[in-house]
Amino acid sequence: METLTKDCIHCGKCTRKCSFLQKYSLDLQELARHPELAYHCFLCGQCTRVCPKGIDGREVALTLRRNRVQEAGGKVPEKGYAALLAEKKNYLFRNARKAHKKSVLFPGCNFPSFYPKTTAYLAELLAKQADMGVLFDCCGKPIAELGLNEEEGLTALKQRLSSLGVEEVVVLCPNCYHYLKPRLDIPVLSIYEKLRHLGLGNTIQEETGYLFVPCPDKASRELETTLRPFLEGQWEDVPDIPCCGLGGCAAGKEPEIAASFSAELSSRDYPNVYTYCASCAGRLSRGGVENVHHVLVDILGTGETPELTVKSLWNRAKFRF
Ligand code: SF4
Ligand code: SF4
């Protein structure tokens, strides 16, 4: 842990960009000495992007989490994560019945919850147009981000893909994309690359479109690059809101900070807000932000708005049964 933050010069740039660090009057080197705050960090990476010494705040918080899990004998040492663990540790709503194909759509956990009709439409479209299968599964990132050992889940996922004969995974969630791409030994493509390759999907025309870039894609913008050909007109980033509030499963620890992100976005009165993460679209809409669009939903033209009630969990379960 010492080595992660040894170059800190205490300039305070990370603190000025982060409501969580401000609340506890910490910079990243000081955070490293507060294991009790490990689960209060949104893992958004905003601090890293401003640190002149390249100190990785996500890694600081993740290391704190991993250390605490190790001290607790391999268990998450905090309350409030039982439901998440019960669902995602060995994904409860896994469904591989239509996954015996070389190329599979991997919708992840959250897109099917918030956009069930679009999920079903897309799976059918890809089956018809490209003979693709669909695998309802969890990438494993939520488990890894709680500080638990990721190897077991990853090995099992690789074995499942191999036994299904899958040679290519097509993802639509930025978490799945950035988590699986460097970890799987088969190609992981974005849905936008696949749609372009197949000549499918509409372009989105806005005089000025406002793009809320999801945390996992903020540093590289790699997934965004793949969807840019579908955006026409002028596009601007939504600046200075680090996270939708769901990052790092920290909302339970810091509910006021989590709510402040939607409140800030709401107060700006953008005529539209586009994102390409279902969790962001759902969370921001639930937080009162109007006119939130998921880019993929508009590209496919299904007109679906995110499910804002508890039915979202049931939507996820439906794809299992
Ligand atoms: S921005 Fe980097 S160098 Fe500055 S206080 Fe934070 S961790 Fe230290
Ligand atoms: S990752 Fe985000 S929430 Fe965590 S310390 Fe950095 S800026 Fe703050």
What does this structure look like?
There is one protein chain. With 321 residues, the chain is α/β, with parallel strands linked by helices. It has helices at 2-5, 13-16, 19-23, 28-31, 46-50, 57-71, 82-88, 110-114, 116-130, 141-145, 151-164, 174-180, 191-198, 215-218, 222-227, 255-267, 278-286, 295-300, 311-318, and strands at 103-106, 133-134, 168-171, 188-190, 204-212, 231-237, 273-275, 292-294. The chain has a four-stranded parallel β-sheet with strand order 2-1-3-4, sandwiched between helices. It has a four-stranded parallel β-sheet with strand order 6-5-7-8. The chain folds into three domains: 2-71, Alpha-helical ferredoxin (Fumarate Reductase Iron-sulfur Protein, Chain B, domain 2, Orthogonal Bundle); 87-196, Rossmann fold, CATH 3.40.50; 199-300, Rossmann fold. The model has no long low-confidence stretch (mean pLDDT 95). Helix content is 45%, strand content 11%. The radius of gyration is 19 Å and the shape is globular. It is built from 19 helices and eight strands.
